[in-house]
Structures
1.
Amino acid sequence: MSVNISIRNAVKRYGNATIIPDLTLEVGDKEFFTLLGPSGCGKTTLLRMIAGFNTIEAGDFFFNGKRINDMDVSRRNIGMVFQNYAIFPHYTVKQNVEFGLKNRRLPRAETEALTEEFLELMQIRELRDRMPERLSGGQQQRVALARAIVIKPDVLLMDEPLSNLDAKLRLEMRQAIRRLQKEVGITTIYVTHDQEEAMAISDRIAVMKDGVIQQVGTPQEIYHRPANLFVATFIGRTNLIDAEYRASTKTVRMHSFEFPMDRLSLEADAPVVLSVRPEDLQMGRDAAGGIRSTVSDSIFLGMNTHYMVTAAGGQVIEIIHESAMDALFKPGDAVDLRIRTEKINVFSKDGTRNLTHAN
Amino acid sequence: MRTERNIRRKPEIWSPITFLVLGFYALFLVYPLLNLLVQAVIDKNTGRFTLEYFIRFFGKPYYSNTLINSFQVTLCVTVLTVALGTPLAYFFARYRIRGKTVLRILIILSSMSAPFIGAYSWILLLGRSGVITTFFLNVMGFRFPSIYGFAGILIVLSLQLYPLIFLYVGGALKNVDNSLLEASENLGCSGLKRFLVIVVPLIVPTLFAGGLMVFMRSLADFGTPMLIGEGYRTFPVTIFNEFISEMGNDDGFAAAISIIAILITTVIFVAQRRLSTRRSFTMNSMNRIRPVEARGITGFLIHLYAYALVGLSILPQAYIIYTSFKKVNGTVFVPGYSLGSYADAFGKVGRAISNTVIIPGLSLAVIVVLAALIAYITVRRRSLFTGIADSVSMVPYIIPGSVVGITLLIAFNKPPILLSGTMLIMIIGLVLRRLPYTIRSSAAVLQQIPLSVEEAALSLGSTKWNAFRKITVPMMAAGIVSGAILSWVTMISELSTAILLYVGKTKTLTVEIYTQIIRGNYGIAAALSTILTVLTVISLLVFNRVGGENEISM
């Protein structure tokens, strides 16, 4: 059975330091939900509160409406995958996987069958009698996953499970986890600081900073319509450009360049910050009406080429352009920039609000 | 709306365990110590507060001199052991020395025997009618300077305790990166200068730690000054004599001396802590110091030093083993060899051998269980109470063994808790004294185990107790067992607590050896010492089997 998770006004303190001041969150049944944020933002702390390893200073945690604050860790029926896998080093792969089943005192035959099933599912059946010290990182990861889900937990909690793997294996395991979660159909909370990993794997993401949730949304929402400047800069790359909004003409002016912007919830003139993703800028030599700029540097990255361009006002802007057989632009070239205004986001000067509303 | 409420942790198995541990220490350590303090400052007849015992101690040079004597000899022993052990450890790390493995085994073995056996052997060799003394006197007409008194204690304890420094420094040198030595040489500093300027400053905290260990052991040692000190009276000897002689009428004076001893060791302990934390460096050795070939005159001198030092330190035990096979007539060695001493030994010792297995064996079982539990609560369940348990468990570390014996005797020699004369009181004494070491080593092992492994067990439905039993304990096991074997070795050669607590039926091998030496039955004493050595060797072999990679440390 899978559950929905509801967290209301959660508070976490260590001594005098408040890690999480007041956090409310809803996670749907069978949802793959990710807590994303820089280190120290409280994401792991929150995960461990749900797991029952951390005390809860205030607030309520519910699984399917049942309050779990005071429930013992061993009775919450959660599967947990740890950053360092936490494989029991003195047990074989099979003993590791069946550990949770034995604690549940299932009939022997059922234990055997389930263990086999999940060893098979995680493709580690041939490793069943190996000791953990003779497993690679990826294999240990698979054991940890099998061990966590074989007990049919209500909730699967994962704390940066891929951070100890090399880049290639990380991509592979990412797919495996995603596939498994959908197959088994289990509410999952996943913690990571890797925004690309979060977007690839999640149904929804909560971006956290200083113990506060900045935004909850689908990967698309978070990427395209970040709630504030922190989210805009934390997710993906972006150029931040200071500008002025003129309410009378509904235009935005940056330095000597002005363009129409009628999607802002602003009634008066105000200084704003534009967030323009590098791929939402176009460069041309003849684009009349663009921002006059000079190419200062280019970095070839295979499929794409990154250009650093100095705009007329002196601001350095990053642009991603699909690579061509020959370098399209060279340092020193004069270019015009054009902005895909429908995709940009406009923030209040202090960065706390996204003023853009979708049409 | 936000609801604040008190966090009420559910009662768990570790709370009662914490309180059981605290109860154990309250009953067997805190109560006896308070009792000791009361004895020292309350006049037994009038029931009033008095400093009379302290005044008597400091007023009479006969007593207060023992303090000065103890300090003199202990400081000299500490300095000498550091001076002997540090170069040896450095040579072992830095140079290829022929027969290194054998030398290392001999060094460890020589440190594992009871010091008083060394003292007694040196008396046989260099005493008034010792073999060497007699040889020089008869053959060369040359009288060896007396071994009794200050010189004797210094020689015996230094040769007995320098292995501690050797092991400590050897461990520390493993953390010194070879490139530091190479960089130093590259910058024009090598040889002795490099050793003094680069190596020694890096291992200063280790020297302090090792030095403290030597200091405590040497200060507390009872058997050596008793046998070889003669007129040179030290602290533990005085405590023993006063306590034994005044047993039954007035314990106050012995209690007062004990209090003074504890105060002194506490000051030393705190001072050492202060000094060494200020000088410690974090080192991370990528490549260890590699031994190089020692050539020419340097090589010769290094080998000479190593062989001579190790030879001298193993000589007493070797000689004891040799004399155990000599023919004995009455109490005198006569020419020829026999197994007579062994026959006598087995005939006379009664239960000493079985006691030496049973008492330390039972103590060890208690120590292992308590150490695992205490290490666990202090590392994993930090709270005010576990903090107290942690501190209290360390207290016996700084209490001299004979003082532990006295506190227990004074506290438990009358109802409601009458323990004197039982095996239990000896076990409690050993447990108290040895627990600090085993707790430290168990805690160190536990800190290496990531907490998440236990959490994984909990999340898989284990109870807290089961997670400890099935996951944590097996992961700690190797570390605990190897620590336990070392505890065992120290316990079977323990004398200063046992000598106070034993009665006829709880006599141990060391007590029996000591008694036989005092009576002049050197043959039997030698045979029993040899048996003890064999027991020690077997234990160390087991340690090597179980410990594997682990190095011996104390």
2.
Amino acid sequence: MKNRLKVLRAERDWSQAELAGRLDVSRQAVNAIETGKHDPSLPLAFRIARLFDMPIEDIFDDGDAA
Amino acid sequence: MIRKSRPALGPGEARSRQRDMRQALYIGFAAIIGGVIGALTGAFDRGEGHLFGTDWDKLELDPGIAIVIAGLLGFGFAVLPLYGFRRIDELKRDQNLIAFTGGATAVLAGFPMWAVLHAGGFGAAPHPFGVWMLAFVGMIAAYLYARWRL
């Protein structure tokens, strides 16, 4: 699944550790999500959406949009 | 000498540092428990055996020491990992689930394979330490696979 996490993080000048702390996950988890190696759970995806104040579908793209 | 002040940490970076510190303390504490188990076993063994070896049945301990070591082993191999399992995030939980699956699969497949190979004249009969090693090595191999390949 593609996502815009890295771009959104860069726009706020946050490090991976900064974003990880704000999401209460490890820095490795942020890195894995950004590189597409890990798809976040629904609760984590909601936390990410709330943090960036955006709808989930504006951050994550499963490539299956109509 | 002018000392450079560190840049202020953001709230997220501070929390990440706390998480890293907790993990380091956890690993350090687990290492201490392992060291205590090794030291007690080495100091009080009256036999010729080793706890983690094929000659484990030659280990001879006083009943009281045996109970203490058994308690520490239960703490180190069950309580501590299960506690850690509740503290890690979803990525590491996924990796740990894959690791435990690898360990269980290694025993489920490995023991009967080993038994029939022995029955066919290949190698020694399955023994408890070997089965434990199957689980342990299977778990580590699966964890490494999950960590670096998935």
3.
Amino acid sequence: MDLALEVTELSVAFGPTQVIRSLGFGVPRGSTLAIIGPNGSGKTVLFRALIGSVRHGGQVRWAPGTRIGYVPQKLDIDRNLPVTGRDLLAAKAAVVRSGGLEAARALELVGLADLQAGQPIGTFSGGQFQRLLLAVALMGRPSVLLFDEPTAGVDEPGQEQLYEMIHRVQQAHQLTLLLISHELSVVYRHATNVLCLSRERPCFGPPSQVLTPAAIEQLYGAPARFHRHA
Amino acid sequence: MPEHLSGILLSAGMATAAGLVGCFAVMRRMSLASDALSHVALPGIGLALAFHVHPVMGAVAALLVGTLLIWGLERRTAISTETVVGVVFSLALAIGSLLATGEELVDALLGTAGTLGAWELGLGLAGAAAVASFVLVERHRLVLSAVSADLARTSGVPVARLELLFLGAFALTVALGLRYLGVLLMGSLVIIPAATARHLARGLTEMLAISVGVALVSTLAGEAAAARFGRPSGPVIIIVAAALFLASLPIRRDR
């Protein structure tokens, strides 16, 4: 199989705390991997290990020529700083230089108005801000997109739209998508494979096999609260 | 060049560097850290005086060592910069005040007016130009890594190296101001104009421009006022900067 990413025996520890223990999985090119698990199960840590931001054991092999677009869950700065959407797009454009997507095209792809982009990021709604960050990620013409909780801070109708948009962008650019999500119904619909992180029993496989009520109850310690869409 | 003109030129260079560096220091929540970082110059000045070397050389050396120390500690431990700087550089202040004594100490802490040598002028201007061009050229990378280090890293920004360079630029800026403002006040000239700009600006370019403007006005007006009333320039500069900051507070930009 043509893999965009292959992970073997991955482990991450912070001091004496083992966050991820000998994890292995593969992500076929162009597929969607959803990463689920309770808070504190190491989802973001896994992302940070994959991009080389935290020390880890084991191997993370990206396919040659992989370009990563990363959409973080939290910024390191206060959102009320005088930084506009356009400032971020300009910064990314300068860093990727030639070969990148133009800011206007990226904004169009994520459905964010030009006028909004010129505003300070503190004025963006949750959904608008996620779109902006996705536009920033897309400017580098990534082959893989890592998206940490796309719908954090987005209201329910907005969530659906956001996932539709991500799906559309993925199709249009043949992206491999790695997604951390709590929305099990969305995961069920869009994911090719699901990776559930838990201390006791990590699992990996297509949603129909992995997302059984019993497995979810075991993962979250509570009965399933998602509904299958027809 | 007449003495007062070269003095003005050097102050303007220092203020520009401080205004630019300050914006990114404020963005990275280094406000308190930067005050403390300026204190690390003190043991350097103390040692330089003891060994009869030019005090600024001692200060620069100490600041560079301090910068490397924070950078290293930050990368190796999970403690925030704020904490590391707070602890290490309060210690530096304590050691410095033991090494330097009496009048020298007051001069080092609060700055001193004195005649300016040609090489001091040249070195000062070169330093200011280096800091200003670093911040302007690297502003895109600096913004990206301040916003999210992970995002910057995946975009190909060498985050750790950029961080070191930024801290270096910061240390150099502090060294530039020691002569006028002293160890205690230089950190404030970096932070107060940037804090004012943060409050007033809507975008990054505006923030940089306002910050430089406030730093320049504070420094030049402060020096002029200090000379007129025969007071030390450092405290007057900071009073002007703080007054501008306070005056900006009631202004509400719609955003």
